[in-house]
Amino acid sequence: MPNTELDEQDPRLEQAEAASATADSSDKPRVPRGVGTLAFTEFWERFSFYGLNGILTFYLLYTASEGGLGIDAASASGIVGAYGGSVYLAQLLGSWMGERVISPKWMVFIGGIIIAAGHVALAFISGMTGLAIGLGLIILGTGALKTNITNIVGLAVEGQDEGRRDVGFAYFYLAINMGAVTGPLASGFAQNEWGFHVGFGLAAIGMLVSLGVYMASMAKLPAKSGVVERPIEKSKLVRLSIIAVVVLLAIIVILSSGLLPASSLSAITTVLILASAAWYFIMMLGSKEVTKDEKRRVSAYLPLFLAGGLFFGLLFQQSTTIAILISERVDLVIAGWSVPVAWITMLAQFAAVLITPFVTYFWGKSGNSGPGAPSKFAVGMFHMGCAYIIMLLVLKMYEGALIPLLLIVLVMMAAGASEVFVGPISLSLATRIGPERFRSQMVGLNFLTLSLGSAFSGLFGQLYTVISDYSYFICIIGAGVIVGIVLWIFRRKLQENLYAGL
Questions:
Q1: Other beta carbons within 10 Å of 12
Q2: Which of 61, 328, 347, 494 could form a disulfide with 374 if both were Cys (CB 3.0 to 4.6 A apart)?
Q3: Phi, psi of 270 (to 5 degrees)
C-alpha cells in the first residue's frame, strides 16, 4: 500500500489533476474516466447487500425444517432493521478513515475484502453464531467501501453543471440498482434450490472478481482519491484504535449476553443514527471554519435529510413489512413452481433500473434550468405514498384470502420507480453543497438517510405486527403524500438556500 502522506506532497499529483481537468473541459465525457470501474465494484457491493437482504428476513422467519432460524416476526424485523441501519451507520467511520487514515481508493479495496469474508462466514458457519459474525463483517466492510467510493465518483464529475452531475450520479446509481436486482435474483434462486447458505455465499465470489478489476484499474481513478486529505497524528490514531477495540468488545458482550431483546435493536439503532446525525449538523453549523453560505446550505439540507430517511424507510420495508406479508398472505406458486421469495422483494430496484434512463434523459437536457433537488424529493415522496394506495386496495379486494403474486409485483414496482427522484439526487447533492472543510463528512451524513431508513423499516415492520393491515397502510400513504406536498410548497426557498454561494 502506498504512503498516502507522501502522496499528498508529490508534484505528480498536480500534473495528473491538470491533465484530468483538461480532458474533462475538452471532451466533457458523459461518463468520466474511472467511473465504469467504480460502478462495477459498486454493482457487486450492492449485489452483496440486496442479495443478502432478499433472503435474510425469510432465513430468520422460516423454521429449522425449512432451513431457517424460526424467529418471531417482531424480532426478525428488529434484526433486519438494525442490520441495515448499522451498515450505513458504519459509513461514518469509513468516511472518517478515508479522510484521516487511509486514502479513499484503498479504503474501497479493504472494504471489499471484508465484505467477501462476511459472506464466507454466513455460508459456512450455521446458526446465530454465523449470523452474528457474517453480518458484523459485512457491516464493517460496507462502511469502509460505500462512502469512499461515492467520494471518488464525486471527484470524477467535478466541474460539471447540475444536470450533467445528476446524470452521472444517476448512471452510477443505475449500477447500484442493477446489483440490487441481480443480487436477490441469484441468491433467491440459490436459496430456493440449494438452501440459504449457498445463497449467502454467492456474493463472495462476485466481490472478489470485482476487486481484481478494481485493482487493475486503480491508475484511472482521480488523483485525489489516492490522497489522505487530513492525516491524523499517529499518537492520536493509537488512542482512538484502543477506544474502538474496547467499544467493539463491549458491543459483542452485550449482544451475546442476551441483555437486549432482538425486537429492541431497530429502536436502539434509530436513536444512535439520529444522535449521530444531530452531532454532524451541530458540528458543521457551529464550526468557525464553515462560511455563512455553507451554513445556509447545510441548514437547507436538514429537511431533505429527514425526508430522505422517511423515504427509504418506506422503500426498505420490502425487507420487513412486505416480507412478513409475503410469508403470510401471498400465493407464491405459479404453474406448480414456487417463486423464490427474494425475487419479489427486488422488484422495487428493478423498476428503478427501468425508469432511470427515461427520467435522466430530461435532466441531462435541462442542465441548471431543470427542477431542483427539493422538487425531485417532493415528487419521489408523493409517488411513494401513492404507490401504497394500490396495496390498500389489494388488501381490501382479497380480505381473508391469499393475494395473487402479480398484484404484489405491481405494488413493488410502483414504489420502486420513485427512487430515481431521491437516491441519486441525494448523492449528487451531498458531494456538491457540503462545506469545504467537511466535504467527506457531508457524504457520510447523506448515507445516514439510508441508515435511518433501514432502522425505520424495522420499526415499521414491528408496527405492522400489532395493528390492522388497513390502519398500517393508511399511515404509510399519509406519511409519503403529506411530506411530498410540504416539500413542494417550500421547494423554491429550499432550492435558493441549498445553492447559496455556489
A1: 9
A2: 494
A3: -60, -45
